[in-house]
Specification:
This protein has 512 residues and is α/β, with parallel strands linked by helices. Among the domains are: 237 residues, Spore Coat Polysaccharide Biosynthesis Protein SpsA, Chain A (Alpha-Beta Complex), CATH 3.90.550; 120 residues, no CATH class. Helices cover 37% and strands 20% of the residues. The chain is built from 17 helices and 21 strands. A hairpin with a 5-residue loop joins strand 13 and strand 14. Helix 2 packs antiparallel against helix 3. The protein is globular and about 80 Å long. The two termini are 38 Å apart.
Length: 512
């Protein structure tokens, strides 16, 4: 099918329901300019004709003043009143904004990363306007487009929220900025080269909220790799919408669990994001960041589900393909990062965690493992971390403690959403943190942690008597554990119970 022909037909059929309303963005400044003009015109009694102004001869008053003098006095008073009102309005608006800044709404934040694909973005946004009737917001994050995307977003006048970046931060970087902006209790990540369809979001939400153990949900489509691909009969967008209207009949019998969902359209609850964290910006530009997120969500005991009753159209990776010859190198780098992060068998790691949980849950619980983890459960204890403002924290069992001083040990970098998973405990002195990091015992009798080299060459971290496998060499390096001297496995260490594995933290700038 021809993408441009589809685009032309799609634009020609724009529904009046998607017609832009005048937004509030920028109205305060516009109102101020209009008020200034009105005051000036009335105060100075100026008559304008074809762009030129003609002064009106002032009348003489018996009190020695003129009508112009009176006008200037009135104008000054009006100007003063206007300025006072504007200042009061600004203060009230600013206070209301601060009060409601963290307030969420019972709807969906639809996050669309984009880069130089204006016509596809326009079709995507128009289709959301046309086919979405549950509460939502649209957040577009632009990775430095030069094709008029910024002007288009401004023209929507408040119907979308958007962020214009100065350069290409990649898919993960754009998604993360959208997540920082999102106010919905549900989140949908949507490629800019998709066209949504009747009942698309209703059906995804029905599937997502059907069970608390469902972590990610994705639709089926015409262009993708894996189990979400279906055969379609249509040849243009008009026929596509007719096909989708008949196809998108809510039917739980068509939902099915899968091991992998691709990132062209992903739906998840906010609490799943808060437990899992941001996307890993170590995957440059695009590809593999969705596979990485799949593994992280499954480690929490959550399921990935294909909503087989939901179809949306996908033109197919237009932004990543625009990299041209660079695409091969980008894919190779991201594949290498994925391997370095997860080792040779990430799905085996997930299976081992599930077996670990099953062995410890109450008898009779069945095969349905609990999903009570957050990613913090897969981070090490007795390590130092820095937040993005540079503050140093010590990760102790069940809490994070502010470090007083600068210990001579490495510190990993964590985002705010990662750190919020631990309550704040009492401060810890730098010397005590060092002692615990090296495996010593604190003044209150707490044991520290030691690094153990296993006979097969892998590393494990023994924390408070529990032996935890380290998922990869990259995980050891990012947590600073690779800088510890490793001790060989002894009989006593081998007898220690095994705990959850330690995985690498994500790389992210975490800034708008």
């Amino acid at each position: 099918m021809k993408a441009l022909a589809l685009a032309a037909r799609g634009r020609g059929r724009r529904n009046r329901r998607g017609k832009a309303r005048s937004g509030r963005s920028g109205n305060a400044a516009g109102s101020a300019r209009e008020a200034d003009g009105i005051s000036a015109a009335r105060g100075h009694a100026v008559r304008r004709s074809r762009g030129r102004s003609t002064a009106v001869r002032p009348e003489t008053h018996h009190g020695g003043g003129t009508a112009a003098d009176a006008g200037r006095t009135g104008s000054a008073e009006r100007r003063q009143a206007y300025e006072a009102g504007r200042e009061a309005g600004y203060r009230d608006g600013f206070a209301a904004g601060l009060q409601g800044f963290g307030r969420l709404f019972d709807g969906t934040s639809i996050i669309i990363p984009t880069l130089n694909q204006l016509e596809y973005l326009r079709m995507c946004v128009d289709s959301i306007f046309r086919h979405t009737f549950v509460p939502y917001e649209i957040i577009v994050v632009d990775n430095g487009s030069t094709d008029g995307t910024a002007a288009y977003l401004e023209s929507l006048r408040g119907r979308v929220r958007y962020r214009l970046l100065d350069r290409n931060h990649g898919f993960a970087g754009a998604v993360n900025r959208g997540l920082m902006m999102a106010k919905g209790r549900t989140i949908v990540l949507l490629n800019n080269d998709t066209v949504v369809t009747p009942r698309w979001l209703d059906n995804l939400l029905a599937c997502l909220y059907s069970h608390e153990r469902i972590g990610l949900v994705g639709p089926v489509t015409n262009y993708i790799g894996g189990e979400q691909l279906i055969e379609v009969p249509y040849r243009d967008l008009r026929d596509m919408q007719a096909f989708a209207a008949a196809y998108n009949r809510s039917d739980p019998a068509r939902w099915r669990e899968t091991e992998r969902l691709t990132g062209f359209c992903l739906a998840f609850r906010r609490d799943v994001w808060e437990r899992t964290g941001y996307f890993d910006e170590g995957f440059a530009f695009g590809n593999y960041e969705d596979d990485d997120y799949n593994i992280r969500v499954k480690l929490l005991g959550l399921k990935l589900v294909i909503a087989g009753d939901t179809f949306i159209h996908h033109f197919g990776s237009v932004s990543i393909k625009a990299l041209g010859p660079e695409l091969t190198a980008v894919n190779a780098r991201n594949a290498a990062h994925y391997g370095e992060k997860w080792g040779h068998d990430p799905h085996g790691l997930v299976a081992r965690v599930r077996n670990w949980v099953r062995a410890r849950q109450p008898a009779g619980f069945g095969d349905d493992i609990q999903a009570a983890f957050s990613e913090a459960d897969f981070y090490p204890r007795h390590v130092a971390v820095r937040d993005l403002k540079g503050a140093l924290w010590w990760i102790a069992p069940g809490e994070r403690r502010p470090v007083e001083g600068e210990p001579a040990i490495p510190a990993a970098r964590l985002t705010a959403i990662d750190l919020r998973r631990w309550p704040i405990g009492p401060p810890i002195a730098a010397a005590e943190a060092e002692r615990l990091w090296h495996g010593g015992v604190s003044g209150d009798g707490r044991e520290g942690a030691v690094l153990v080299r296993m006979p097969d060459g892998t590393l494990q971290h023994v924390e408070d008597g529990v032996r935890r496998p380290i998922a990869s060499r990259l995980a050891a390096e990012m947590w600073g554990l690779a800088e510890k001297p490793a001790v060989p496995l002894t009989e006593a260490l081998a007898a220690a119970p095994e705990g959850l594995p330690i995985i690498a933290p994500v790389r992210t700038e975490q800034r708008l």
